[in-house]
Amino acid sequence: MRIGEASRVSGVSARSLRYYEDEGLIIPGRCGNGYRDYCRSTIDRVRVIRSLLESGLPVRLIKDVLPHLTAEPDADPGAVCAEFLREVQRYRDRLAGRIAVLSDQQAALDAYLREARRADR
C-alpha cells in the first residue's frame, strides 16, 4: 500500500512515516515509480513504534529495542538485553526527577497565588 493508505491504516501521519524511515525505524519497499510501498509487517512495526513513542521512550532507545520486539516468532524472547532495561530505568528515573521538580514548582506557585489572593482581600 502507498503512504496515504498506510497512514490511514496505521493511524500515523504520512509525515511521521517518512520520519520513521529517515530514522531507520522502518524500511518500506519501493514501487517501480519510486513510491513507497508499505506491507502489513511494516504497518505492524509502525504500530509498535507509535506505542513506544507514546510511552515516552526516545527514538534512540526505540532503535535499540525494536529489532528484538519485532523479531521472528522463533527468536529468543530474552533478547531484550539487560543493558536496554537499565537504560529504560535510567530514562524513567530522569523523568521522575523532572516530574518532582515540576511538582515543587507547581506547589510554590499555588502558595504564591494563595498569598496573593489573601493580600487582595
From TrEMBL:
Quote the SUPFAM superfamilies the UniProt record gives: Putative DNA-binding domain
The HTH merR-type domain is annotated at: 1-68
Q: Organism classification, top ranks? A: Bacteria, Bacillati, Actinomycetota, Actinomycetes, Streptosporangiales
Q: Tell me the GO molecular function terms.
A: DNA binding; DNA-binding transcription factor activity
Q: Keyword check for Heme, yes or no.
A: no
InterPro entries from the entry?
A: DNA-bd_dom_put_sf, MerR-type_HTH_dom, MerR_fam
Q: Can you name the source organism?
A: Thermomonospora echinospora
Q: Tell me the domain of life.
A: Bacteria
Official protein name in the record: DNA-binding transcriptional regulator, MerR family
Q: Name one Pfam family in it.
A: MerR_1
Question: Keywords, A to Z?
Answer: DNA-binding
Keyword Protease attached: no
